[in-house]
Amino acid sequence: MHRRVARPSRTAPRGAPSPLTTRGLAWPADAERVDVAIYAAVATTPTPSLDRAMRRLSSAADRSKLNLAAALLLAVARGARGRDAAGRGLAAVATASTLVNLVVKPVARRRRPDQGLHGVPLHRRARMPATRSFPSGHTASAFAFATAVGETLPRDAVPLRLMAAVVGYSRLHTGVHYPGDVVLGAVLGTLSAQATSRALARRRGRRPHPVRMMPTAHAASTLATTNTSTERSTMATVEKETHDALKGISAGDVELLADAVDLREAQLEHTGLDSRTFGLVKIAALVALDAPPASYAWQVPNALADGATPSDVLGVLRAIAPQVGGPRIVAAAAELTLALGIDPLEG
Fold it and tell me: What is the dihedral sign for C-alpha 201, 203, 204, 206?
């Protein structure tokens, strides 16, 4: 008689690691368990001296009210540098808010914590927002403002960064965010501020070599260079018409750009695309190439004039994010925020 040999079961026994775990792909679930455990630990730790203060601080940060108050204080107390820092900070808040609320949250789609399930005391709870949980928009805006102000006023940024950290913790303490939401919010806020500062610097058109206007029409067609023992720099002299045209193009003057580069209509005819799609494809190319601000100042209004909407522009940003990567999406969000004129108070 032939003895039948039992075949190994294809079903893994209980308690055995899953294939995803053995391949190192289960870490997101492990990380989420740690995230929830920290949230539950904070929720069940009695802190009567902190509860009321954290709830008030969390509410005060709604709609960037703390950032606006800080911006007003800087503008009044620090003069021209304070006004510059305040403007940078609010621009960074607009970028961070756009990136978090319109790009990351709809993609991540993480649900808000269950305050009752994890035992968050009633007197500690803040109003639960209707938006997704990941990441924290309050934290992103607070860190964006503090980081951007630090570009101009480093010392004043120290208490602002401390305030941003406390705002982030208040969102955890009051039960409306997990710790991971707060951490990523801080990272995205900092990156948004850095991208916004670079965009503003490029938009202001700082040039290492100044341009001098030609004083008379007699010398309008010549290029002069000055080489003396006391002056080593070279300065080009140009006629007024050329100077004004170059200045307008660099600032994104649509009419001058159309006169200088009369290619848009010809390109559209050869693509076979409708004008709206053509404009959105152009914007996608700008993001992929990390184009200068003047390009956004030209192409975004063109796309809107041809029937595209800000939601369409946002859709382009979401669609190409996996291909171009996070850093370019953050940088492009800053440029698109400025080109669309988004209010820092919205979102």
Answer: positive
